[in-house]
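Reopening: structure tokens for the biotin complex, inputs below.
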Amino acid sequence: MRKFLRFDELDSTNAYAKRNCSLIADQTIIVAKTQTAGRGRMTRSWLSQPGGLYFSVVLKPQKIDFLPNLTQLMALSVCQTLQQLGVNAWLKWPNDVLAGGKKICGILSEAVTHAAGFEALVLGVGINVRQADLSAAGQPATSLAMLGVQTDEDTVLDAVLAQFFDGYTTVLEKGFSALSALYLKHFPYIGKEVEIRHGAAPVRGIVETISPNGELVLNTPQGKTIISIGDMCV
Ligand code: BTN
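Re-run output (same inputs, fresh job):
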């Protein structure tokens, strides 16, 4: 049975989940109307004003072979939900969702570990829903409202969670192979030249595919390169 913890304001739903992890049951969803210190990937911040959807799903699975693929399942679930709402959304590896060439959703997944090993995966999701102005986001960003879709955060949350938990058990068992056909259908970058930024030296190449593990496979002047982390820039 899924549980919800709802807040008007938190520093960060991910930070709350990590702080209180031992007290939080498997499959609990932490939702905040605003965040004062919303966090993004690569130590960036995440603008978290009212009108956005900010939540973290705490997962404590027995089987942990395919944890990174749960993040990709979440990205796919958001993408499919936005499409159901009439938005032409697509996936940008590893787990961004774009619409109209701008970011509409970001996902920050963090593992909680202790001396005895893995305790939980915290999947933090930010979706721009009713915001009218995202000029402070620090990157080109859009919202459902800016794309002409009138809805609310709870409707989007329910739809995303339904999609996510529909695929959850299968991805836990089978990893990216359970997702790859659908993921690739919503990933329009095959054959495109991209740059992956992570650390000092960016890597440029043509996207060949996504590997059976969910990594990006690039053809570079140095040969085939498999990338497991980074920011993809077109
Ligand atoms: C990204 O950089 O694209 C990831 C952004 C993730 C933002 C969400 S909002 C809910 C959860 N709490 C956080 O502090 N971050 C994630």
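The first strand starts at residue 3 and ends at 10. The mean pLDDT is 95. Marking as resolved unless the reporter disagrees.
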